[in-house]
Structures are given as C-alpha cells and as structure tokens.
Amino acid sequence: PVPSPGRDRRAVPDSGVRSSLRPLPLAEVPVRRSAATVYGLAAVDGRGRIADRVIMQALGWDSGTCLGMRPVHGVVVIHTEAGGVVRVTSQGHLRLPASLRHGCALEAGDRVLLAADLVEGSLTVHPPAALDVMVARHRAWMLRGDRA
User: Fold this and answer.
1) Does residue 112 contact residue 77 with C-beta atoms inside 8 Å?
2) What is the Cα gyration radius of the chain?
3) Which residues are CB-neighbours of 10 under 8 A, at least 6 positions away?
4) What are the residue ranges of helices labelled H in the chain?
5) In terms of Cα–Cα distance, which of 126, 129, 139, 88 is closest to 105?
6) pLDDT of 71-99, one tens digit each?
7) What is the pLDDT of residues 105-133, one digit of tens each?
8) Which helix (H) or strand (E) holds 34?
9) Do 64 and 116 form a contact (C-beta atoms < 8 A)?
10) Is there a contact between 50 and 127 (Cβ–Cβ < 8 Å)?
11) Please, what is the end-to-end C-alpha distance for the chain in angstroms?
C-alpha cells in the first residue's frame, strides 16, 4: 500500500518477495545551456505583426525602437538600427514587411519561433519551413546516434 499524502509516511513492511525487474535506465542529462538566448512563440497576424512581451523586454526594445531586418537562409534577423524604417509599435509589436514575409513563405496565422540573442542584441524569427528543416536534421542526427 502507498501512504496517502498527509498521513504518516513510515516505511511499508517488506513483503519478502524479491523482484527480478531491473531498474529503469536513467534518461541522458542534457548539456547545460551556455547561450544567453530567450525563446518565444508568436503568431503572424494579417498585417505581418508579431508580438512577445518577454522577448521585447529581454532585448530592451520599447515602443519606437528603430530596427533593421534582413532575410538569412530562410529566417529573418532583426537588430536595432539607427534610422531604421521599421519601428516597434506602441503596442510592442514588430511588423515584418511583406517582402520579408513572402521571401520566408510566411502567411497570416503561421506560428514562428522567436530567438532573442541577448549578447548580440538581435532577434531571429524562424518560420515553420525553417523549423521543419532544423527538426528534420536534428532527428536524423539523433537516430544516427552521433555524439557532438
């Protein structure tokens, strides 16, 4: 019998029956994080806007912050840029220009992975197509049993 919470938790007497079961294997402990990265998820709205307050606060990007954006291998890299034409909206949204959305195959309703690099002070927006590639590569690596 298993004692219920709040009751006396003294040891239950041994039944005298030895189990032939082996202990379950322990899960591998993942490598501790060393990167100063904050992650978030956001949906792209019909105007190309994305929002995540935690990300914006971590980067220190307030309303009116000027930004530069560029596509890099299927993702969008965003950084502060004096005189940048894109600005953080008064509601804390980022608006991805149509040309970037089309170039990364982003559509309204798509959910994107946001990765804020706090050392570089940049934000990378990973569209679903880029996530598909990353997950497929990682899965193939895991199944081969490679070790880094």
Assistant:
1) no
2) 24
3) 3
4) 53-59, 98-103, 128-144
5) 129
6) 999 999 999 999 998 999 999 999 999 99
7) 999 999 999 999 999 999 999 999 999 99
8) none
9) no
10) no
11) 45
Which residues neighbour 117 within 8 Å (Cβ) at sequence distance 6 or greater?
35, 36, 37, 123, 124
Tokens matching residue 27: 């899960």
Closest CA to 41 of 129, 122, 128, 112: 112
49-50 and 94-95 beta bridge pairing:
antiparallel
Separation of CA 68 from chain center: 21
Asked whether the beta carbons of 126 and 55 are under 8 A apart, the reply is: no
pTM for this one? 0.73
Q: Which two tokens stand for residue 50?
A: 């994305």
DSSP string, 78-101: EEE-TT-SEE--TTS-EE--HHHH
Measured CA to CA, the distance from residue 33 to residue 145 in angstroms comes to 21
